[in-house]
């Protein structure tokens, strides 16, 4: 998993409600903004590494750290609770109307190249014996994932729902092994929420949640390099095109 921290300089983004007088802040001299938002919502304190695009129309609350080249579209929402912090690894993308939430307490860390597509909802859990989420995960439009840790290269198809008490989720230790049903899908059972004090269940790496019943199966990794190259190219395209048509959050 990639870390959002880099030897490259970081820039702290200011609240769009009170942009800096100069309009920009040098990445070599980061400043943070803690303007109140009212209504009990924590003011945004956003630290962005080089190459990020953060739309002025993105809704951000709380402490957010962005790795190199992250993209936050207009009208997306990244909501972090008071006293908590969220760190996204390099190349993560949050699209229009997608909601990424971390209520806290503590810290949640995401790996690199995770994509949160239009109108999906991801309710994150705190880091527990590892990052809250790995790398190269894809949350399709209107998917909903809450209360679980996520491994690497998982796909949550459009309209699916995944949570800690889902009848298809079973976790064995930290591996999340699944049995196969007659259709070859990974089918995972649970008896309810995790015991008090237990780490949230882990969605195993390469899990694909799909279909109206949110069935799960394991991807065999075929076409992995092509998939990564395609997604990297798409993210690079967004970094080039979005600033041409959307105002960037003032630095």
Automatic annotation (TrEMBL):
Biased composition, Polar residues: where in the chain? Answer: 1-18
Q: Which family does it belong to?
A: Belongs to the dynactin subunits 5/6 family. Dynactin subunit 6 subfamily.
Where are stretches of biased composition, namely Low complexity? 22-31
Q: Which stretches are transmembrane?
A: none
What is the predominant subcellular site recorded for this chain? cytoplasm
Keywords for this protein: Cytoplasm, Cytoskeleton
Q: InterPro entries attached here? A: DCTN6, Trimer_LpxA-like_sf
What GO MF terms are annotated?
Answer: dynein complex binding
> What GO cellular-component annotations does this UniProt entry give?
dynactin complex
Query: Where is the segment annotated Disordered?
Result: 1-41
Q: Where in the cell is it found?
A: Cytoplasm, Cytoskeleton
Q: Name one GO biological process term.
A: mitotic spindle organization
Task: List the protein's name.
Answer: Dynactin subunit 6
Its biological function? Part of the dynactin complex that activates the molecular motor dynein for ultra-processive transport along microtubules.
Source domain of life is Eukaryota
